[in-house]
Amino acid sequence: MALPTVVVVGAGQAGSDVAAALRSRGFTGRIVLLGDEPEPPYRKPLLSKEYLLAEPAAEDLELRPESFHTAQGIELMTGERAVRIDRDARRLLLASGRELSYDHLVLATGARPRRLSVPGADLAGVLALRTLADARALRAALAGTGDLLVVGGGFIGLEVAAAARTLGVRVAVVETRDRLMGRSVSEPMARHLAGLHTERGVRVLLSEELAALHGENGRVQVAELASGERIAADLVVAGVGVLPNTALAADAGLEVGDGVLVDARLRTSDPLVHAIGDCARFPSPHARRHLRLESVQNAADQARCVAGAILDPAGAPTYDAVPWFWTQQYGARLQIAGVTDGHDRTVTAGDPAGGRFSVFCFRAGRLLGAESVNRPADHMITRRLLATGDRSLTPDVVAAPGFDLKHRQFQPA
Q1: What span, in angstroms and rounded, lies between the C-alpha atoms of 372 and 337?
Q2: Mean pLDDT of all residues in the chain?
């Protein structure tokens, strides 16, 4: 009997990790890892941080040494794009005309940046950041930039703003919401992040909207806001979110909806096809609804889950990893454990003025998660509490004088 073949579409964190996990757990069949970028798998989180300041060494950027795939018998195909899934024949058609047969197909197709939809969005100097090629272009552009406008105050936008300001570029951030990272963090944490940026000279414009971009000789020069204000901008970075890459799945008749829809075992509507990472929308027991998460943690954890499911379909566990996220802006490392949207109370512990504190988020007295700045112990303990379902951490416990989560005891005030 022929050994089974697993084809993985997408050579980012999720795709690379599922291929590696299959081999490390004893899978002896054929593994094909397909990536549409020319580079082997690399670490995307670096692109909006260290990479913009100074190009890291090649070994720091790569997810795994190039020799890894050969040594593990993983067929890495870069610069190849999948265009059609024939589910009946279990074949994948590539843009090059090649075809790949599969026994299991894993979709790790990721997401793409939302583009600005205002007049002038097609001018030179209007960039987004998602790929290594994007990062190269942005780093080169920053070297000759006087005024950067970041559209969107989320993770990517603020990380780019921090890097640019560190390089001495004048920076303005325009955010349509009334606070930064409004989809991701609590009001106290958003206020702290705004302070970090304004203290370093970033102009933060909240509840404001980009109306148009104007240029000369085809290159952006000025941004016009909905309020009528005009801001100098010889470089614009769009950080307005991403769209999941679902076209391949949708064309194959798989269920999609803000992502490729999967069940608790990360299977699509076809049990031979899994979806993981930024493109997958899955039922989260922690959020109690379907989520699509854009994080390295989610990609890596889902990859391991799917590797286990392919090796042992009957014993496949459900995916129940606690979501967590992180960002680095200036000297502040923010780590978020859990899904904190929908909270009705926050309690802050630590020293916000000194840049070491956590905001604990609750709903109806139950811990949803914590946002920790330079407090890694709080982050790790919160993850464990959420994973075990421990409900002993209440708002009153956190608010008590001398609260110390690391030691789980009260200290004298």
Answers
A1: 8
A2: 95
